[in-house]
Design goal:
This protein is mostly helical and 187 residues long. 66% of the residues lie in helices and 10% in strands. The protein is built from 5 helices and 2 strands. The protein has a two-stranded antiparallel sheet. Helix 2 packs parallel to helix 4. The longest helix has 27 residues.
Length: 187
């Protein structure tokens, strides 16, 4: 009944437009960047965990009002997209194996369950904010422990891929009375 909220049609339009533009951008990006299954898994996991931790953290600190759920979901969406962009940018450097990504994922789930689940299991009158804070914090700690514990696993190298999709070369061209210095390259 609140006229400030989006209609079903507006929400559908925003979701479909975002998904379509994201699909096009993803297709263009993967055509110029070498990828491996581990890099794709890493990017997906970073997006997922960015959304989960941001949503839990925001839900834990927001005041109780009619928009708390929407604001927590908005924060989760922002965290998801920040994780996605971070994964895209850092995956060539990190280049983890699928095994490493899955082990880190499992440790994140375990951390959230250990802290958040234990609190919910033993609390007589659980506070939703405390449950979200513990689940989000436990997840973040679990992910950090998993990443640290698997640091010795080998990187996954893109086979047959160029080291960089961009190529830049300095140029020097003679001209009457001197020369021209520049950069030439391909994307």
């Amino acid at each position: 009944a609140d006229s400030k909220r989006w209609s079903v049609e507006t929400v559908s339009t925003v979701l479909w437009t975002g998904a379509t533009l994201g699909g096009i951008a993803g297709g263009m990006l993967t055509s110029i960047r070498p990828t491996t299954p581990g890099r794709v898994s890493y990017t997906g996991s970073l997006a997922l965990w960015g959304g989960v931790v941001a949503g839990f953290a925001t839900g834990a600190v927001l005041p109780d009002n009619a928009y708390r759920t929407e604001n927590a979901l908005l924060a989760a969406g922002i965290g998801y997209n920040a994780g996605l962009i971070g994964g895209i940018l850092s995956s060539p450097v990190v280049s983890p194996s699928v095994t490493r990504v899955r082990l880190v994922d499992l440790s994140g789930v375990a951390g959230g369950i250990v802290l958040g689940g234990t609190y919910l299991a033993f609390s007589r009158d659980p506070d939703p904010r405390a449950a979200m804070a513990l689940a989000g914090g436990g997840t973040a700690v679990g992910l950090a422990i998993g990443w640290f514990a698997t640091r010795g696993l080998p990187k996954e190298i893109a086979v047959g891929a160029k080291a960089s999709p961009f190529f830049v070369q300095p140029t020097l061209s003679p001209v009457p009375g001197g020369g021209v210095i520049g950069l030439a390259g391909a994307m």
